[in-house]
Amino acid sequence: MQLVNERAKQSVDGISAAITIAAWWRKFQNPTNSGLSDEASPIALIGGMLMNFFEKQVYLLVEDNESDVLLMKEAFFKAEIPNPLRIVTRGDEAIAYLMGVAPYIDRLTHPLPFVLLLDFKLPGKDGFGVLGWVRRQPTLRRLVTIILTSSNRGADADRAYDLGANYYLTKPGLFTDLVSSMKCLHVWLRLCHFPTLAEKGDPDLEHVLLTP
Asked: Low-confidence residues of the chain, pLDDT below 70?
């Protein structure tokens, strides 16, 4: 199984970014020869690179209702969320995606998500089962998991938080409210510091295995 070492990729990206920043900083210190505008200052450059890095991160939506999937896609578009939205429709498919097993082996095509949007009412293993599985995995237990469900029952929310959900959101009844919710969520997530995830193949975690 071919697995991408995300930590190595991030290190290479970090080195490239550092070289780019250093070059721009030298130009900034010598503005007479650089033609560098205020908008292209090192601070603006760093902010732009961080934004571009964030916008490449993947949301994974686990939702079996076709209408809700279409609404979520449209909500992402209306909210101007540029991040890729990957979709699976079953609990066991979500686990296969997160494990990186067939048909999700290629991490270039199916990268690990930075946020899991999880419904409860799923065929096969339900959302509670998926959430419990995620929190038992040494390499995935920090994955930011947001419950997105039609249930507003307090008992469901309590169970979700007991299993390790980061947040519990009830699906709005109006599409405009869904767009507003996703936009607010996305803006807020951009301000968050996300935990480190790793996969099998990471040299620091060779002894750790994902379990079904």
From this structure: 1-51, 198-212
